[in-house]
């Protein structure tokens, strides 16, 4: 799966809004980090960020939704889990760098900065 932070997304969107050459030909952009991750790789990154062992065990779509339902976003996260399983979240581009002039924040740094114990 490929991700990008809200902060980086906002920066890119603001750049497109104020720089006509980034949008004057109907351009489309796919904003992503510089690489995609499988669930095992994400578990390793989360382990490093939290200091706690985090693993990955595949579950059904319904089980995934049920796990996160108490937090209020079970169906939304389940739809993303399903899309990832279908390969729809694998795209990686350099669009963010093209728009902003620098790389987006990497997943390891994002997790370390945003993990709250």
Topology:
Layout: H1 6-18, H2 39-50, H3 61-69, H4 74-85, H5 95-100, H6 107-114
Helix pairs in contact: 2-6, 3-4
What's the short story on this structure?
It is built from 6 helices and no strands. The chain has helices at 6-18, 39-50, 61-69, 74-85, 95-100, 107-114.
Count of extended strands: 0
Amino-to-carboxy terminus distance? 25 Å
The whole-angstrom Rg is 16 Å
| Overall form | globular
SSE string: HHHHHH
Level of helix content?
A: 40-55%
Would you tell me the structural class of the helices and strands?
A: mainly alpha
Uncertain runs: none
How many DSSP helices?
6
- Arithmetic mean pLDDT: 93
Taking the sheet with the most strands, its summary is:
none
Quote the beta fraction. under 5%
Keywords:
mainly alpha, 117 residues, 51% helix, single chain
3D architecture notes:
This protein has 117 residues and is mainly alpha-helical. Helix content is 51%, strand content 0%. The protein contains six helices and no strands. Helix 2 (39-50) crosses helix 6 (107-114) and helix 3 (61-69) runs antiparallel to helix 4 (74-85).
């Amino acid at each position: 799966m490929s991700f990008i932070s809200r902060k980086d997304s906002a920066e890119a969107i603001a750049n497109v809004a104020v720089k006509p050459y980034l949008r004057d030909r109907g351009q489309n952009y796919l904003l992503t980090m510089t690489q995609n991750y499988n669930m095992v790789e994400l578990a390793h990154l989360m382990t490093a960020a939290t200091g706690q062992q985090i693993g990955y065990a595949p579950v059904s779509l319904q089980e995934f939704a049920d796990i996160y339902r108490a937090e209020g976003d079970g169906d939304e996260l389940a739809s993303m889990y399903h899309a990832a399983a279908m390969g729809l979240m694998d795209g990686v581009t350099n669009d963010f760098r093209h728009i902003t002039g620098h790389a987006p924040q990497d997943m390891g740094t994002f997790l370390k900065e945003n993990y709250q114990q």
